[in-house]
User: What shape does this take?
Amino acid sequence: MTDATEMRRRTQELLAARPPAGTERLDFLRARFDAGLAWVHFPEGLGGLGAPRSLQAVVDAELAAAGAPDNDPRRIGIGLGMAAPTILQYGTEEQKRRFLRPLWTGEEVWCQLFSEPGAGSDLAALGTRAVREGDDWVVDGQKVWTSSAHLARWAILIARTDPEVPKHRGITYFVCDMTDPGVEVRPLRQITGEAEFNEVFLTGVRIPDSRRLGEVGDGWRVAQTTLNNERVAIGGMRLPREGGMIGPVAKTWRERPALRTHDLHQRLLKLWVEAEVARLTGERLRQQLVAGQPGPEGAGMKLAFARLNQEISGLEVELRGEEGLLYDDWTMRRPELVDFTGRDAGYRYLRSKGNSIEGGTSEVLLNIVAERVLGLPAEPRTDKDVAWKDLAR
Amino acid sequence: MSTQPDLLYSEEEEALRAAVRDLLTDHCDAAGVIARSESDAPHDLSLWKALADGMGLAGLLVPEDRGGQGATHREAAVVLEELGRAVAPVPYLTSAVIATEALLACRDGGDLLAGLASGREIGALAVGLHTAPGAAYATVRAEGGVLHGELSGIADAAVAGLLLVPADDGGLYAVEAGVVTVTPQVSLDLTRPVARVALDGAPGRRLGDAGPAVRRALRAGAGLLASEQLGSAEWSLTETVRYLKDRKQFNRPVGGFQALKHRLAQLWLDAVGLRAAARNAADALATGEDTDVAVAVAQACAAPVAVRAAEEALQLHGGIGMTWEHPVHLHLKRAKANSIALGTAGAHREALAELVDLRAP
Assistant: This one.
């Protein structure tokens, strides 16, 4: 029933009913969702067909060949990669019906209200409070590093509902309406000059209990679904040789012999090899996933790429000599998309500094490798059985 | 690249690994290797017999119709991973890979292949172990049908019955060990000792042109050496993790200290990368696609990883790591010698500069 032939048949049926050339983009996307061809591994009625995830490629290829519009996944990555799997796993039927369709079509953009100024690597220590008042929760606090907050209609939010219990147990997971009174979004300017992220101030924001995801006090477990999907989204891309940041450096090296020095040559070759080894490691990981033998190697990929991006872009600034003294543009902007390899070498150098911080610092990831992959003992914990309100801060 | 390399291990390759590991667990313990390394017979010829005669592993790279197993570099790489893990003192890389590849490249000498494939004959290519694929190497004088000269740094020559000797006339000669003088050199790596080979009017049989044969042999050796280095790095990591979970100081397992955990996590990351690079080289040698780049990348990556793994293992074992009785020094010495064998990482990076067009100033 749900094999590749059937997928092709259903896709052609959609294309016949809504020829892309004569259909509004949004109408087409909604029809695709309703035909179960949005994410085929989702259940029927929620944009899917309960089919194996691997069959999505069949649908995507057919649609691309027919010139059908897509949902611009890069613009709505947080919704697709993090909010949707969490809503699917923990949402009520009503929540799934309300949220998933406009999330997938991109009509409603999502952002993530997790990190706080006082809760970075120790996310579970977060202090944004949600207090029950009748059928509502009243939320007060401050979130940070929120990309797309200024574009978003909805946010996934974790907040403290019980300060009397240890930190992991007193958290609850909500869907927050970003257009509600009390939600204030301020751009957070970065060292690159632009503001890709925001600070979000929440003051007396009322969230109805019907927009809670999962049980009261179970928010940490719900958030694990979100964060595990973030790591899945980061790995798994297939790169050609010189496909990453090494590409522009190698190109400059080849095209501009006058810039070459012996010292730069040694460093370039070393980094070229490291980039190629990282690419092969990613390719091996991908082959393991396809073969159904996922290994722990994924945990290391982000670590490797963060360091490489930083070192390669640092070398590139030096390679450019006099031009390395310049920067393309310091104007404060709010980009909708983030492209680590976009713009010039100076931008790449500065932006890649974030690669070892965002999505888990390299230091925390090394702990994770040491404890979960190598089985080394965890740090002694002084916060485990202490009520959140009594933690040092 | 027309196809993607296969970077995984097949079920058959995993079964081969398990069989080799079982044999080495039973017959190649570290204490025995350490004791043997200082004896007059540093090579373990009964282990060699079990690997070659018993399991047929010396003939993996030789086609079946020429007396071998007709397997590929992928399987040989798995064997080398396990031999590297055990620092096994057997002439597998030198005879079953390097000498065998040299013979396979020659017009004549097909009759010698079956001997190497069975393991009953051990072969050694008489080119210094430090030589990178494509680099210059020393030759002997061919004069009046016999060979004169001295070559040094020849790995495993002490147990070889057949020497493949390059001469100044451009030929590669088969020379029986009985007609030359082999003098062991005191070696950094006692488990793969090098020797001086002196030829004083030794009769030899010309097999073909030395240039392409040596190049092919060293390239295959370099590519598969990465798998041996991977095996050694894995041992260093696994053994150190095990020790640090067990060893207690300050009323805690030492492996719980973050400064040490991060070092071990970094080693793990490096080993994961080396595994991908080594598999890629083995696959490229088997398919013949993108082979020069794959081998150079693997060799530019492998030695720094394996050496650092052994050095970290020594440091993190503390005092016990400095003792003769603990096996970490076997890995340190092998890894350090391997960092020179078949070209340094730097030599392979220089090769890449040409191969991928990132030329020097």
Observations:
- Residues 241 and 255 of chain B are 7 Å apart (CA to CA).
- The beta strands of chain B are 123-125, 141-143, 146-155, 162-166, 171-176, 181-184, 194-203, 205-209, 248-249, 252-253.
- Chain B has three domains: 11-121, 125-209, 213-355.
- The longest strand of chain B covers residues 146-155.
